[in-house]
Write a structure and sequence with these properties.
Layout (H helix, E strand, L loop, with lengths): L2 H18 L17 E4 L6 E2 L6 E4 L8 E4 L15 E4 L5 E6 L6 E9 L16 E7 L2 E8 L6 E9 L5 E7 L7 E2 L1 E7 L18 E11 L19 E3 L4 E4 L16 H4 L1 E4 L6 E6 L7 E8 L13 E5 L2 E7 L7 E7 L2 E7 L8 E2 L1 E9 L7 H14 L20 E6 L2 E8 L6 E2 L13 E3 L4 E4 L11 E3 L4 E2 L3 H8 L4 E3 L4 E3 L16 E3 L25 E3 L4 H7 L6 E4 L4 E6 L5 E5 L8 H18 L1
Parallel strand pairs: 1-3, 14-15, 27-29, 28-30, 29-31, 30-32, 31-33, 35-36
Antiparallel strand pairs: 1-13, 2-3, 4-5, 5-12, 6-11, 7-10, 7-13, 8-9, 8-11, 10-14, 14-25, 16-17, 17-24, 18-23, 19-22, 19-25, 20-21, 20-23, 26-27, 34-39, 37-38, 38-39
Length: about 625
Amino acid sequence: MAYESLKKMALWCTSLLLGVFIAVVQVHGQSPSTEGFISIDCGATGNSVDDSTGIQYTTDDQFIDSGTNYNVASNYINASLPKQYLTVRGFPDGDRNCYTLNQAINDTKYLVRASFMYGNYDGKNSVQKNSPLLFDLHIGINIWKTVNISDPSTPFTYEAITLISAGRRLSVCVTRTNSSSTPFISLLEMRPLKDTLYPTIMPFPSSIFFSGNLVLSMRHNLGGSGNEIIRYPDDPYDRIWKPMNITLHEVSTDKTVKHGQFDQFEVPSVVLQTASVSAGVNGSIGFPWDSPDSHIFYYVILHFSELELLSEKDVRAFDVYLDRRSMTTDYSPTYLEGSADATSNVRFAFSLNANRRATRPPILNAFEIYSMVVTRFDATNVGDVEAMLAIKEAYKLKKNWAGHPCFPEKYAWDGVTCGNYAKEIRVIAINLSSNGLVGQVSNFFSRLTEIQSLDLSYNNLSEKYLLLWQLYQTSRNLTGNCIEVPDALIEKTKDGSLILSYSSLMLNHSFVNHEAIQPLSESRQFNMESGGSLLPYTNFQSGVDHKDSQLPLESRQFMYTELENITKKFSRILGKGGFGIVFHGFLEDGNEVAVKMCSLSSEQAPNLFLAEVSQFESALRVM
C-alpha cells in the first residue's frame, strides 16, 4: 500500500476511532481460561508449567523438524529466571527455519509473542557489549521484527497482533541477517483474541480499516508500584503490562473497574486501578514518541478510568492533543469504567491538557503503542502447500520445508520452483532427485495441477502402474526407479508434449547375485537407460574377468518394442533371480544376451535392483 494512501486511511480511521472507542459498559465476570492458548517451550525435552502464571508449556517437537536443542550456560541461571528460559532451540543450519502452528484457528486474531534469552547456550559468547546478535523474525511471509540481542542474560520479547486468513497456515520463522548470525528462540506463545478487540485490524482486503499486523512497541501500566508486571491470569489474554511512571503523582483504588461486552480493548481491572495525574490542575501529562522510520505509522491507544469519586463541584476534564492538534476535547473519564482514545500517526507528541472548567488534573491509566505494518497478502495456492507437506510426510523427507514454499523468494523451499497463475502463486516444478524416496509414487503429486517439471530420478520408487500420467507436466524424469510407465504416457513423447526420462530393462552378460543361472559366453553388456516402457533400469556387474579388456562394455538405449524382438516377446526364461526374471535373447548382430526384469512383487526388489545398477555403472567407469 502506498504511503500517501495509508496516511489518508489512518486519518480517516482517526476520526472514526475517536468517535467509537470512547465507550464504556459493564463487563460480565468470568474466570480466565487458557483454551486456545499455544505455549511452546523451545528446546525443552519435557512439558512444564510456569510457576507465576500456571500456564502449561509444551515441547516444540510437533511444531518444527529443524534446529537443535540447547541448554543455557549454568552461570546464567538464577532463581528469578523462569524455567522456560533454561533451554533454547538453535538453528546453525539453513537460512530460514519455521514453526508451523496448525492449531491456530482461521479467521481469528492472535497475540503472538516470541522470546529470546541467549545465555551463551552455544558456548561461543556470540553476544558482546558492542556486538549484538541480530537476526530477523517473520510472521508467515512478512517481516515481523529484527531481533537484537544485546545482553546475554536478559530475555528479549517481541509481540504482535495478527489475523489468520481463512485457509492459511500460520508460521513463525527466524532468518539469518548474515552468515555469522545464528538464530535461536526460547519461547513462542499465541493467545486468541475476540473479534471485537483491536478493531483496526480487519480481514484482507478492507477499504476501511488497516489490514496488516500490529507490532508492539510498548505497553505500560501507569501508577503501578515497583516492578510488578501484570499478565495472565489478571489479563485473560496474557498481555504483558509493564509498570511505568510518567509523573510523580499517582492515584489508585481497590475497587473493580468495569468493562463491557462492547469494550474494544478489555484492559484488566488491576491495570486500570492505578493512574498517573499531572502535578496541578493546570498541569498536563505528555510524552513524545518519534518513529525511527518516517514511513511507518504508529497506532496509540490511551486508556482512562476515573478512580476518585468526585463531588458535584469537582470536574476532571481535559483535551487530548497530538502534535499540538486537538484530537479530543473536553474529555471526562467515567468513574470506575474503562474507556480508550486511539489514533495513528507517524510522529507523536501527546499531551493531555486540563480545560477551563477543570478542577482536577488530567489522568492517564495505561497506554499501548503499536507500529502498523502493512503485510503482503499470501497468494500461494493452499492446495499446493497442503500437497507438498503431505509429500514430505509420506516420504519422511529431511528437508527444511516449513513456512511458505515460495515466499520470501530468497527462502523458497529447496527443490521447489513457483510461478504466478491468475493472481495466485503455484508450484510449477519439483526436483527430488537422489532424495532416498522409497515406496510408491505418492498420489499427492497429482494434486499439484500446475506442475510443469517433475524430477524423481535416482530414488527407490516402485510402481506397477504409474498413476501420474494424467498430469500435465512438460518434463518428467523417472530414471533410476522401478516404475512401470503406461503406453498413454509414452504416446505423449511422440508429439513433443512431454519430455520423459526413465529406465526400463537391462541387457547383461551375467549377474551379481549368485543364483543358479549360468553366464552366457561371448556376449556383451548393455545398459538400457530410457526408451523402454516396462520397468526401470537395473544394472549388473559382469562375472567375467575384464582385466585384459577382452570384453568391451558399452551403453545403449532400447525401445520396448526392440526388447520384444530381442527376446521374442519374452518367450524363453533362463531363470529367476532374487529380484527379477531373466529372459534369453539375441541382438541383431547375433550376439546372445540375457535380459533381466525388475520384479514388483517383492519390497526388496527395487533396492537390490538399484544396488546392482550402481555396481554396473562403477564397472563401466573403471573400464
